[in-house]
Structures
1.
Amino acid sequence: MDIPHDLTVLLRGAEHIAALTGAGISAESGLRTFRDTQTGLWAQYRPEDLATPKAFARNPKLVWDWYAWRREAVSEARPNAGHYALTEIGRRVPRFTLITQNVDGLHQRAGNRDLIELHGNITRVRCSASCGAVTSWEERPDEAPRCVRCGAFLRPDVVWFGEALPRAALDAALEAARTCRVFLSIGTSGMVQLAASLAYAAKNRGAALVEINLEPTPLTPKVDFFLQGKSGDVSPALVRATWGAGRDG
Ligand code: OAD
């Protein structure tokens, strides 16, 4: 993969780089994306049946089982070269802000400590009522697990359709988008707000936009550099071209 020289110069000189990742970065770890036409989760399942507060109220067990199945896939997955390349960028620039829409925790497992999770994390659970408890739960074959403190159903600590994003995460992501010199959009279709608007917020404040994706997206016409390919190939190539050999050699 040829990385444009202008881009390497820009990255080397940047005081602050921000990156937004989506399901595409974890595809090479074996996790399914949402909107890929054949293999995406939303090609097979309807979000309104599984990923909304109404769906959970209607059938908590169905929703729980679906997330338990996804949690299992996440626990078997390993970070890939794309995740490690971003960890490497974090070591090379004075300030690096990593923002993800993914709930799989693979960035943390690749060594990223200060991650902004816009859509929560599938490995955590919380009480669906307002008691706020996040304790332990028991898997039961015939029922969704319940909060040990108040007895309400537990739910995955993720953002569902129709729910607000976590305020602190959103504020931190917006601040990063508005102050970064370069904004990288990696493996996301850009179909879901508010995450998709971050790239535009960055551009409006003068940041250069760089996109890494297998395919063009609605953002592509706006970006300064479109690097087409797998993030597990392109991101390490970007790190090597910019800063020399990284962790993957
Ligand atoms: P999508 O499934 O919408 O988009 C995945 C993107 O990754 C597509 O643009 C693919 O072309 C690209 N892609 C696939 N494999 C890739 C690879 N190996 N390297 C680079 N790019 C690749 O996933 P997201 O944009 O993450 O929200 O979806 C955003 C949100 O929609 C998710 O967080 C989820 C979903 O509904 C909630 O559940 C709230």
2.
Amino acid sequence: MIDDQVIDPTTTKAWKALEKDAKRIQATTLKELFANDPDRASRFHFEGAGISMDLSKNLIDEDVVTHLLDLAHETKVFERRDSMFRGERINNSENRRVLHIALRLPRSAQLVLDGEDIVAEVHATLDQMGDFADEVRDGRWKGATGKRITDVVNIGIGGSYLGPEMASLALRRSISAPLAAHFIANVDGTDTEKITSTLDPETTLFIVASKTFTTLETMTNATMARDWIASTLGEEAIGNHFVAVSTNHEAVQAFGIADRAMFGFWDWVGGRYSMDSAIGLSTMLLIGRDGFAELLAGFHEVDQLFCSAPAEQNLPLLLGLLRVWYDCFLGAQTIGVMPYSSDLARFPAYLQQLQMESNGKRVDRSGKALSYQSGAIFWGEPGTDGQHSFYQLLHQGTKLIPVDFIGFLQPLSGYHASHDLLMANLIAQAQALAFGRSAEEVAASGVEEWQVPFRTFTGNKPSTLMLLDELTPKSLGTLVALYEHDVFTQGAVWGIDSFDQWGVELGKAMATSVSGALTDESVPLNYDSSTNAAIERYRASRRRWA
Ligand code: F6P
């Protein structure tokens, strides 16, 4: 583990001040806060990198923001941010640098580490991806039987899947080649079966995307896909139908993929921070190298903002501090993320890995157990769908659930009247959550007395409203980078390592052991009684169909 001084945030002056603030804020309401401050909307409105962020409907006042910024100073968030940008090994438990920010540095930038020019390496890979994307997109890259590629299948899971899949949907309108993207992630064979039963092997290209090239799900699915191509087109067709994205050169070679069809990246890119690395190859195939460059430019703009905007106007910093406020001082357990755009349908799922794999930690960077909450649960669905399912609980339930609302000012379809309605719903939901409808108002509207409690909305439910102009590669880049640095800020305050993910290892090891016991009945069952019973049940079924 690297030497790193961890500051317990609860020992800071700001923490104590925030505990007092929480009492004051819990004794007031958003209605009162707005009534007492005619400038509240503009006071808590922030703008940067094309994102308009309205924090005014959050349970905060100026003192809270001041003390949150003090907390950032006292816990050395800015120093840690600068260490990340300098390429220091801030991923303590894995002794690695954290340099996803280098993936979007412009060609003219310089970042030399251990004598290697990182920027030159990044751009060499981007050029390799770009040349390959050009070939596939204009039909020069052909399948083994001479047909052009029409379908690209990304085989990968977690960070090697969620970002590319989210982007393929979000950037649907920017697709500029006759290509369709598909994704196989789950080890559930139905995913691969769907692909092999609907696509034509002659026109299908597989991208095996795996940082480690050892992930069980991905290697199982890749082997099945490989068998499909070999059995339909012959073993020699593999070279035309498979490429790989990985940091594991040897394993890619062993799989039978040639060097020229391998796109590399580096151990300093965490899986959940990799959609802008070669893991984004499927995205580049769809939107082209120029579109991908725009996406990177969006990321970079927010990186710059995070590095240089004054703290009190630093969007990702403020967003991250707000999470800490809700988590540690107001007792919120979850954050809802509601994009008012069907094209961002997979954004909440993408964010879940980004946020929860990063900050779902129980010890700080020195290994000491945390005495405070960390890592909220992120979840969500696009609006307006969610309004007709779980918003009931947001409006009238007993839990505190801050919500991020995300909307686009420009319509994403030709149906402009629909966009008016979509945006009306977005704005109205934030308003209804904040201000509710009092019992007096309900009664005054003529509702029978006995029904009043059921139809009353207490309000005081916080939300953040983020508005962007249009959903483009660039704005998607800004949105993702905003959340990446939001995650960073939270982790830095909490003193945790946001860049490891040891928590996924135990389940993997146990699955390997259980898998042996399921398929080999001579393996004695020495697990707990519940696990043994589940295995017995499965074995009995398996005897009938295996
Ligand atoms: O098991 C979790 C994880 O390691 C994620 O962090 C990662 O994004 C995913 O698995 C996939 O890993 P790989 O890209 O190495 O296949």
